[in-house]
Amino acid sequence: MAAEIQPQPQARKPCLLSKIEAFQEVVSTAMIIPKEDGVISLSEDRAIRVWLKRDSGQYWPSVHHTMPSSCSCMSFNPETRRLSVGMDTGVICEFILSEDYNKITPACTYQAHQGKVTVVLFVLEMEWLLSTGQDKNFTWHCSESGQQLGTYRTTAWVSGLQFDVETRHAFVGDQSGQVTILKLEQDSCGLVTTFKGHTGNVTALCWDPVQRVLFSGSSDHSIIMWDIGGRKGTAIELQGHNDKVQGLCYASHTRQLISCSSDGGIVIWNMDVKRQETPEWLDSDSCQKCEQPFFWNFKQMWDSKKIGLRQHHCRKCGQAVCGKCSSKRSTIPLMGFEFEVRVCDSCHESITDEDRAPTATFHDSKHNIVYMHYEPTTGNLLTSGSDKVIKVREQMLVFPLKADRNRCGIRVYQGFELTPIYNIITDLSILFCEFVTSYKLKCCNFLKNAAQMSY
Ligand SMILES: [Zn+2]
Ligand SMILES: [Zn+2]
């Protein structure tokens, strides 16, 4: 049989476009200004800086504003050039940047929290300023009147916050590892549901309003894709980092998820791939291949005079097998395993080279990543590192779409063998019924998945 040439991802390295190296301190937050070759940075020396790219190709500071205390987070709205900066004192300061980005003007201050502001998010459509703090409060202010509209007590410090304008849902990820979904009204809010899946803190959240998918990253190294638009309660785990997930961005036009971890790893996930469900792990008292008893099966051990063996599971077929019958390892990207995992001998034979074509790419930024920002209009990616350097990289690679692989199905990226137990606390139907059902992903049943992942 003639060998078939498979399309391979264009695995070129994300090309470094520019560096900003003038910092004495680590840049805690930074973002690319859309349509303007500029960057806004917030660094540990309490300075807000705006950098504009000059004809030489170098970024030069056009604004340098020192704040009275340390700044922890910011939100920038390009249409109004409104910059909201959260501080360690609990105050949020609002500024307006001039049209040429050469001037910064204070506009308003909010005494929003008792402790450090952990996340701030300005929503132009609602004229709302959402924020969370170390006082465990989630609050929202009217950005026109400056008045606090409402507050909600969270279970732990919040480290991730996203908002869906269409349905007015806020997604709040906290240090306990859960994501709380709140429905906001003008001056009140209701708890819709809680997502529990991570075994560590939620460190980053990313909401894709088109597919209606929420991605959560965690200090447990994993990312979970909560498919709300699919309306079936599907939660898919993506395992590709060896350290705390530090940032998540979704490029909806190329359907790529970009994630970074504090060890400098950047993973680009192709989310436009037909994926199969991972199998449920089967229960058996003996190897389902060679029928040798497992070590707890005393009766068969005695009857057959055989020594009990340790049980393993084939990641492809889910059968309970002994070590001898599952001695081989393989990647199974179409089932989400980008790294080699245990498979039984017969499954190993059935996996073709085409099946092994990778669907995520892994890059090393060579510095610990503190913050990441993706700018969709240019496709450029900004990272800020512990080396006190901001790096801007050009558009990340685009996977070729393959007719028989896209638009139908789900995928569990599981690079590692450990997967946490999923648990959805409350009924999702309240949330689902409000969501527009534009979905291309056909998803497996979440609860079924939950059972197989509980190992
Ligand atoms: Zn066996
Ligand atoms: Zn198998």
Defining traits:
single chain; 455 residues; mainly beta; Methylamine Dehydrogenase, Chain H; Herpes Virus-1; 3 domains; 5-stranded antiparallel beta sheet; 4 helices; 5% helix; binds zinc ion; zinc ion binding; repeat; metal-binding; WD40_repeat_CS; zinc-finger
Blueprint of the fold:
Elements: E1 16-20, E2 27-33, E3 38-43, E4 47-53, E5 59-66, E6 71-77, E7 82-87, E8 91-97, E9 104-111, E10 117-123, E11 128-133, E12 137-142, E13 148-153, E14 158-164, E15 169-174, E16 178-184, E17 189-196, E18 202-208, E19 213-218, E20 222-227, E21 234-239, E22 245-251, E23 256-261, E24 265-270, H1 298-304, E25 312-313, E26 320-321, E27 328-332, E28 337-343, H2 345-350, E29 360-364, E30 369-375, E31 380-385, E32 390-393, E33 413-414, E34 423-424, H3 429-432, H4 446-453
Bound molecules: zinc ion (ZN) (2 copies).
Bound molecules: zinc ion
Task: Tell me how many strands there are.
Answer: 34
What best-fitting shape do the alpha-carbon axes yield? elongated
CATH level-4 homologous superfamily of the largest domain: YVTN repeat-like/Quinoprotein amine dehydrogenase
- Mean pLDDT, nearest integer? 82
Number of domains: 3
Strand order in space, largest sheet:
14-15-16-17-34
Largest sheet geometry: 5 strands, antiparallel
What's the helical proportion of residues? under 10%
Structural classification: mainly beta
Name of the level-1 CATH class of the largest domain: Mainly Beta
Under CATH, the topology of the largest domain is which? Methylamine Dehydrogenase, Chain H
The end-to-end distance, rounded to whole angstroms, is 40 Å
Low-confidence stretches at least 5 residues in length (pLDDT < 50)? 1-11, 397-455
Strand content: 35-45%
Q: Measured on Cα atoms, how large is the radius of gyration?
A: 24 Å
